[in-house]
Amino acid sequence: MGLTYRAGGYYPISYTGPYGVGYPGPVPQVIPTPQPVVPSVPTQARQNDTTDDSGSDSDSSSNSNLPEEHDNDPNYPNGNAEREVRAGTIEARTNSWKATQWVWRSCGFVKAEVSDGTVRKVELRKCRGVLRCPNCHRLTRPGTDTRKRDKQRLSPCYRCRVFPIEVPCDVKSLHFPILRDGIQYLRWEQQGRHTHSRPPLSGHLTQEQMVEIDKQVLRRPDATPHQHRVGDRNPGSVPLHEISPALTDPRRAQYQVARSKERLGIGSSMQKGGLSLLHTVGQLNQKFGEDFMVESQLHPPTYISYQTKFMRDRVQDYVDSWLKEDENGPSISRHGIVTDGDNSSFAIGVLLVSCAFDATLEQWVPLLYTWIAGQDTLHH
């Protein structure tokens, strides 16, 4: 007799095979595939979720990552808080002044009561809380998009194979402009208290972190992004990864250092690009060893004209030949210069090409290239 597996057990069967009558050989062991466990969401787990203070993966069950009632940490402000910046400043344009490490989702514009008791039209944002593994307490930063958040809830913990639970939050933030003494300010107000653990840090920097980066760039304005990342041994040096773990990425560090220089007005990308272009254009004649750029003008009408020695020689040859030819001859139709514009060569401006027909080569030859900043009466 042999065994067969049905409905959770082994049952005897008659079998004749290579091992003799009634002996089917070794019975294979069936190992069930572990399935993710979907736990219920107890009320206590929503209130007492814990992890370590770093906000990253942890098996710790301490309460060090739970926020205080009125936390002064600018990355994780708690309780009623207010921030304000003057409109039109660089700080206001970057939105760094109101950045935090809580996860916010915009709910559109509504009418709400602000801190001074008035009802204003504001942009309402709600905190999305945090996702937590109920077994190992590993935290996940929730997505602001509904589809992404649903996907996160259906993705089991890579260590425990347990689905995370969503720890909700009722804290709101209000964003609105205000006019005071004829000057417009932008305000950010937080209403409520976060009772959940801090979500892991994101790649976005807060105002405090940007200020720290600016301090490091001011210390060494000529240092490379890599030198800022690793720091130095001099007093006051802080490696960028200590300001934000996200800055361990070389590309992010390079981007944030460039942004810092723009804020500080030292070697911004726009200034560097503009001055570098002027320097490169001014060195063209020296680079080619001849007068390649023959004429230019920066103020309106703005233009730059280029012509090689070969082009200048052709102009002289063509003019001389036209003067010698019969005014009523068959070649009179080839006399003259044709100019056409190309709008696709540059993002700004038009490239004009002036050509003449060469009877020897039997083709059109360019005689002058001119870039003009616009097509208007000044340029024509």
Descriptive account of the structure:
- The protein is of the alpha+beta class and 380 residues long.
- Helix content is 24%, strand content 26%.
- It is built from ten helices and 17 strands.
- It has a five-stranded antiparallel sheet with strand order 5-12-11-7-6, with no helix packed on it. A five-stranded antiparallel sheet has the order 13-14-17-16-15.
- Helix 4 crosses helix 7.
- It is elongated, with a radius of gyration of 36 Å.
What would a concise description of this structure say?
With 380 residues, this protein is an alpha+beta fold. The chain contains ten helices and 17 strands. The protein has helices spanning 43-47, 90-94, 146-153, 207-219, 225-230, 240-243, 250-264, 269-282, 284-288, 309-324, and strands at 2-6, 9-13, 16-17, 20-21, 81-86, 104-113, 119-127, 130-132, 139-140, 165-167, 172-180, 183-191, 293-297, 303-306, 338-342, 350-358, 363-372.
